[in-house]
Design brief:
Elements (H helix, E strand, L loop, with lengths): L4 E2 L9 H10 L18 H18 L5 E6 L2 H13 L4 E6 L2 H10 L4 E7 L22 E5 L1 E2 L4 E2 L11 E4 L16 E5 L10 E6 L16 H6 L9 H16 L2 H22 L4 E2 L10 E5 L3 H13 L2 E2 L10 E4 L6 H17 L2
Parallel strand pairs: 1-13, 3-4, 3-5, 5-8, 8-9
Antiparallel strand pairs: 2-10, 6-7, 9-10, 11-12, 12-14
Helix pairs in contact: 1-6, 2-6, 3-4, 7-9
The structure holds pyridoxal-5'-phosphate.
Length: 359
């Protein structure tokens, strides 16, 4: 069976071991005589699956007791509404605009209160993380919102804003478990699973307990963190199969040595690609070097026809989904946890060959 190197920004590749385990479990999970898709979410089997997934996630991210972990639905995008509905008690938030996902979060938050845009990198098509001027922070804001890794533009924070007593809220969708973060610096983090931890359908959130239970009175039940926290993510039928696969990914990550070891591999992979881009006469990265993402690497040649030719030939050679986002153009290689070092090395070899042939 041929597998391609899949550089998709999401849904993206999963570890082969995880897919093989899912295949083994497909017809008869753990002696249940049924697949995980067919069993009650109130069954003993699923209870073990979700409890282990939560325990492993807490262990991998060092999430302390005073945070609730939730498996939610509606993707990262539903969090854009759920956050203001639950946290905007006084009615304002600070936000840094680093791209399309921050903008969508901003547009949604504006429906519920005032959004103070502290800084933006829109002037240069979001190819950097803007410097933050503390005098622009609102000390009375309900929360301060950032997009940690910008999937489309390929930037990431390497230093967090010091927001004092204002809870920091972060969208970790495209970087969760790719590098170590100190969860205690955040009031709330969330991530749609389909980039780094599993299939689409489940969204993981970790919320500090003091921020739970303050939802507006007219907040829909399904959008209230307290409802899900109190019910241990079993208020209604959760996305059982997606949680099961995410759980297998967590076990795989633990076997790999956890997030710390994964980070080393990710730094190695990113360095291989960026080093090549910095030395190539044909290809170049589009992001300011100090803000480069470890996960999403946008790059271009200076010729649109050459970009198209590259994408076409790469696809024919088993390097798929390299087309850049329509707002940036060119190419983007997403090299999440499941992408092996070998995949990045092979891509760079292919790029070298393409460069020689198309001088
Ligand atoms: C993909 C993505 C989202 C949106 O996720 P959905 O699950 O499709 O709603 C939000 N934020 C970031 C950073 C993303 O990469």
């Amino acid at each position: 069976m041929e597998r391609v190197y899949n550089f998709s920004a999401g849904p993206s590749m999963l570890p082969i071991e995880v897919l093989e385990q899912a295949q083994k479990d497909m017809l008869n999970f753990n002696g249940s005589g049924m697949s995980v898709m067919e069993m009650s979410h109130r069954s003993k089997w699923f209870d073990d699956i979700i409890k282990e997934a939560e325990a492993d996630l807490r262990e991998l991210m060092h999430i302390p007791e005073n945070y609730k972990v939730m498996f939610l639905q509606g993707g990262g995008s539903t969090q854009f509404a759920m956050i203001p509905l639950n946290l905007m008690v006084k009615g304002t938030c600070d936000l840094v605009n680093t791209g399309q996902w921050s903008k969508k979060a901003m547009q949604e938050a504006k429906k519920f209160g005032t959004v103070n845009v502290v800084a933006s990198s829109e002037d240069k098509v979001f190819n950097y993380i803007p410097a933050l001027d503390k005098s622009k922070f609102n000390p009375d804001a309900d929360y301060f919102y950032i997009t940690y890794n910008n999937t489309i533009y390929g930037t990431r924070y390497t230093e967090l804003p010091d927001t004092g007593n204002v809870p920091l809220v972060a969208d970790l969708s495209s970087m969760i478990m790719s590098e170590e973060i100190d969860i205690t610096k955040f009031g709330l983090v969330f991530a749609g699973a389909q980039k780094n931890i599993g299939p689409a359908g489940v969204t993981v959130a970790a919320v500090r307990e003091d921020l739970i239970g303050k939802a507006k009175a007219d907040c829909p039940t399904m959008l209230d963190y307290k409802v899900h926290a109190d019910a241990s993510s079993l208020y209604n039928t959760p996305p059982c199969y997606a949680i099961y696969i995410a759980g297998l990914v967590f076990k795989w990550l633990k076997k790999m040595g956890g997030v710390k070891e994964m980070q080393k591999v990710n730094e190695e992979k990113a360095a291989i690609l960026y080093d090549f881009l910095d030395n190539s006469m044909m290809f170049r990265g589009t992001v300011v070097p100090k803000d480069r993402s470890l996960m999403n690497v946008p790059f271009v040649t200076d010729d649109d026809d050459l970009n198209a030719k590259f994408i076409k030939e790469a696809t024919a050679n088993g390097f798929v989904n390299l087309k850049g986002h329509r707002t940036v153009g060119g190419m983007r290689a997403s090299i999440y946890n499941a992408m092996p070092v070998e995949g990045v090395k092979s891509l760079v070899e292919f790029m070298k060959k393409f460069e020689t042939e198309n001088k």
